[in-house]
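Risk register update: the risk of archive-format incompatibility is retired. Evidence:
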Amino acid sequence: MRRRLVVVPAAAASLIMLAGIAWFGGLRVNLTRSYPLGLWRIEPLGRPPAAGDLVFVCPPESPAFRMARQRGYLGRGLCRGWLSPLIKTVVATEGQSVEIGEHVSIDGRLLPHSDVRRSDAEGRALSPWRGGRVPRGHLYLHSDFAGSFDSRYFGPVPADGLLGLAHPLLTFAP
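Archived output:
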């Protein structure tokens, strides 16, 4: 009995230490379906973000992200508001025009795989972002996964939440 009491706290401390090393070492586990499940690495960008970059970004604190957390779209993590970082593709940067209808268009070009849904998989209402120009210092993010919660619904996010490029290490499709 005494041995068990020592093992449990030691195992918990080891897990916490490994999680800290992984976090500060740039490793993340993706458990969402927006991109393949598994182990990812964050790499420094070293330049301004551009369309086509697959990135990790911390979501800003906002009503849209509080709702996303309550509905289970986002897990807990070490970003502001205890939210997990997002893996998304940058599809528009500051100054670009985004139009939202049944699909998304950027600077007049249809964005593939950009159907805008009016409800989530459980039938709960979704409100699309109104569209417009991406503000200075912001990024418009997208995932090809049809059920992804991305800028179609929360709009552009501040670029200062960018953690870096997302590189898969050990992943698999769900």
